[in-house]
User: What shape does this take?
Amino acid sequence: MAQKILKEQEDFGNVTNSYLGREMWYSNDFFINSLILNFITDAEDDLVNELKKIYVGVLGNPGLDAEAINMDDEFEGYLIKTHFDIDIQLDLFSHFVSYHLYGMQLSDERARFNLLPEMCEKLLLLMDKEALLKKAILEDVHDDLEVDIKSPRLNIATDLFVAGMSFILGHEIGHHFLKHTESNGRNLVSKFIPTDVTYNQRYLDEFAADDFGFNLLIRGMKKRNDNTLFAPLIVILMLALYDKHPEEASQYHPSLRDRYLNLLSRVSEHNEAIALTLQRIFNDIATWINHTLLGYWKTEWWK
Assistant: This one.
């Protein structure tokens, strides 16, 4: 597998970097590297050079998180680490959501009803991490990529997945660029938290990183795409699947409910009408999840 990845990196680098091979790579993962390249291509001049200092290391152990690593005086770049299965879970969740969004486009009630078994199957797989990882290892978790590439539902899932991963990366890049990881300032990822940092300051850093990731995402939009704007909200909903109390803040992070509402306000600033539509769709999907999982969340935290 390692040799295959290196070969893909070499071939891709030769095509895009005048046969410089892997010299210009920004991640050990092919897909994430392409997303960073997109950021660089779409960035304004003052951001380009800073974005070129990013390196995202994808680790071999499972875990649904990404993290901006504390700045090191001996290294000029910005390091971010993530786990290999975060894209697996987001890909599956994007397909799950795409069935609902595609169903909204169908006038035939029976056709919409026929989508429910696929939605249920993907939701149950998302809730069983062990089964999901086993599927990823023994089979191909990206089976849906083999279907007709002209499929409207698949196009929706692809939009959500690409934009969702871009937002996740943009959030971590934001922690770096907003100086949350500097050793001489507030450091959210270090085990040592300075005593002058209050919980509210940490929360504000998370909101700021979300704002940065959202702005980085929409800056690269070639045209208005409601699915792209929906993707950051979908990331929050995916995280809520593994948190039975999304309305409650932790010691280091604001509640997922507050992060969702903050991002919804950013979408509203971009386009209020779209924000209202996406809020209604989010409510419908979250309600459906809670009903299907027999009251998994004790509150309707999304309302």
